[in-house]
Write a structure and sequence with these properties.
By secondary structure, the chain is α/β, with parallel strands linked by helices. Helices cover 40% and strands 14% of the residues. Strand 5, helix 7 and strand 6 form a beta-alpha-beta unit. Helix 2 (32-43) runs antiparallel to helix 10 (261-275).
Length: 403
C-alpha cells in the first residue's frame, strides 16, 4: 500500500504549530482519537473497579479493553499485561522482586547499549543481593550488539539478562530471539526493554522469547504510561511486596494503587490508531496491526534513506547509527561543532531534534561521546518528506555559519 502521510498527519493537532518533529524517541505527539478517548473516560462516571455502579463497570471495562489492546499489540496474553507509571518504575519493581531470589555468587548480565532504566535497577539490585554484574559490550564502530557478545558473559550462575530490543540512542536492534535462546540455555530469565522497539516494529513476544517485555505508550502515540508483558504462569511465581488488602490476583498483584483509567483508555485508542495506519487492512486487530506496522516500517525506512543521503552530502557530520538492523533513529555529531548549538539552531527554524545522551549514558560513553551524546533524529508515523527536507536544510544552514 501507499502510506497516506497526509491522512495520518491530519489526526495530530500538535502539528498545526508547524514544527517538524524529530523528537519522537523521547515521546510522540498525540492523535485526536487518543485525546478523545482520554476525555471520554473522564467525562463519564468512574470509580474503583467493580460490577455494581456505573462508575465501577466503566473502570472495569476500560482496564479490560486496555489489557486486550496491549496483548494484541505485543502478541501476548492479556492476563500477563501489567500497567505501571513508567517502564523505569516497572524495571525497579521487578528488579526488587526478582532479586529476592538471588544469592551471593549469582550473576546478572546488562549491556552497554541499553538505556539506564534497563541497567541501573539491575546493578543496584544485584549489589544488594551480593550478586555479580557482568557487562555485555557492543562494537562502537558498527553499533552492533551480537548474541556472541551476550553469550561471552553468560554462565551457569546467570539468573537474569537485561537487554534492549532497540537502542534509543543509535537504533541498533539486537537479535533478541537468539539472545533469548542462549540466556534460557543457562537457566536465566530475559528482561527486554522494548520502549524504543515497540514504536517502530511489530512485536511478537513468543517469537522474541522474552520472559519480560516493557514498553511505553507515549512512545507510540499514546499517553504517559508503562506496560510490561509476561507469561501469566511466570508472574504467578513472583511475590512482590504489596498492601495486605490489595488483590493477589495476576496481573493485578503487580499494580500498586488505583490505575489511571483515563490513560488506559488512551492506550487502547493508540493501539487502535496504529492498527488503522493501513486503511486497507482487514481481520482481527492483531492482523491489522501486523499489516499497519509493515506499512509504517516501509514509510520510515524510505525517509531514513532520504536522511542518510542528505547527511552524506553535508560533509562534517558523523552518523553513529550504523547497525545493519536498526530503527529510523540517528545519532549525529558534527566536527568542530557543539550539537546543543545545532539543536537550538534547528529549533529556531521550527525543527525539533534534541541533543544529549538521553539516559543511554553507557552507550554514549562507549561511543567516545562522554556524557554529552549528540544530536538525535528520530522518525515517527507522522514524519513527512517535507519534514526531512527542512531538517537537512536547517543542518546545512547551521554548517554554513560561523563555527
Amino acid at each position: 500500500m501507499a502510506y497516506d502521510i497526509t491522512a495520518v498527519r491530519a489526526h495530530f493537532p500538535a502539528l498545526r504549530s508547524g514544527t517538524a518533529h524529530f523528537d519522537g524517541p523521547g515521546g510522540t505527539q498525540t492523535p485526536v482519537p487518543v485525546i478523545e478517548a482520554i476525555t471520554e473516560a473522564l467525562a463519564h462516571p468512574l470509580a474503583n473497579r467493580g460490577s455494581v455502579t456505573e462508575g465501577e463497570r466503566n473502570a472495569e471495562a476500560i482496564v479490560t479493553a486496555a489489557r486486550q489492546a496491549m496483548a494484541d499489540l505485543l502478541a501476548a496474553d492479556p492476563a500477563g499485561i501489567v500497567f505501571g507509571r513508567s517502564a523505569t518504575q516497572l524495571a525497579y519493581d521487578f528488579s526488587r522482586t526478582l532479586a529476592a531470589t538471588w544469592s551471593p555468587g549469582d550473576e546478572v548480565v546488562v549491556t552497554r547499549l541499553d538505556h539506564d532504566s534497563n541497567i541501573r535497577p539491575w546493578t543496584q539490585a544485584a549489589e544488594r543481593a551480593g550478586a555479580t554484574v557482568r557487562w555485555a559490550d557492543f562494537d562502537p564502530a558498527t553499533g552492533e550488539l551480537t548474541p556472541d557478545d551476550v553469550g561471552a558473559v553468560l554462565g551457569e550462575r546467570t539468573r537474569l539478562v537485561a537487554v534492549t530490543a532497540a537502542s534509543n540512542l543509535i537504533g541498533t536492534r539486537p537479535a533478541i530471539a537468539e539472545i533469548a535462546r542462549r540466556a534460557h540455555a543457562t537457566g536465566a530469565l530475559l528482561y527486554v526493554d522494548g520502549v524504543h522497539h515497540a514504536a517502530h516494529a511489530c512485536v511478537d513476544l513468543p517469537g522474541l522469547g522474552a520472559d519480560f517485555y516493557t514498553c511505553s505508550p507515549y512512545k507510540f502515540l499514546g499517553p504517559h504510561l508503562g506496560v510490561l508483558a509476561s507469561r501469566p504462569g511466570l508472574l504467578e511465581g513472583l511475590r512482590p511486596d504489596k498492601l495486605l488488602p490489595s488483590t493477589d490476583a495476576v496481573p493485578e498483584r503487580f499494580e500498586f494503587g488505583t490505575l489511571p483509567y483515563e490513560l488506559l483508555a488512551g492506550t487502547r485508542a493508540a493501539v487502535d490508531f496504529l492498527a488503522g495506519l493501513d486503511p486497507q487492512a482487514h481481520g482481527t486487530r492483531r492482523e491489522r496491526l501486523v499489516s499497519s506496522y509493515a506499512a509504517l516500517e516501509e514509510h520510515e525506512e524510505t525517509l531514513r534513506l532520504r536522511i542518510d543521503k542528505g547527511l552524506a552530502a553535508l560533509g562534517p557530520v558523523t552518523v553513529h547509527s550504523r547497525a545493519a538492523h536498526r530503527t529510523p533513529t540517528l545519532l549525529l555529531t558534527i566536527d568542530g561543532r557543539d550539537t546543543t548549538h545545532a539543536c537550538r539552531h534547528l529549533a529556531a527554524r521550527g525543527v525539533a531534534a534534541p541533543a544529549g545522551a538521553f539516559y543511554a549514558i553507557e552507550a554514549s560513553r562507549r561511543l567516545g561521546l562522554g556524557d554529552t551524546g549528540g544530536l538525535r533524529v528520530g522518525l515517527a508515523p507522522y514524519t513527512s518528506a517535507e519534514d526531512v527536507d527542512r531538517l537537512l536544510e536547517g543542518l546545512s544552514d547551521f554548517l554554513s555559519g560561523p563555527a
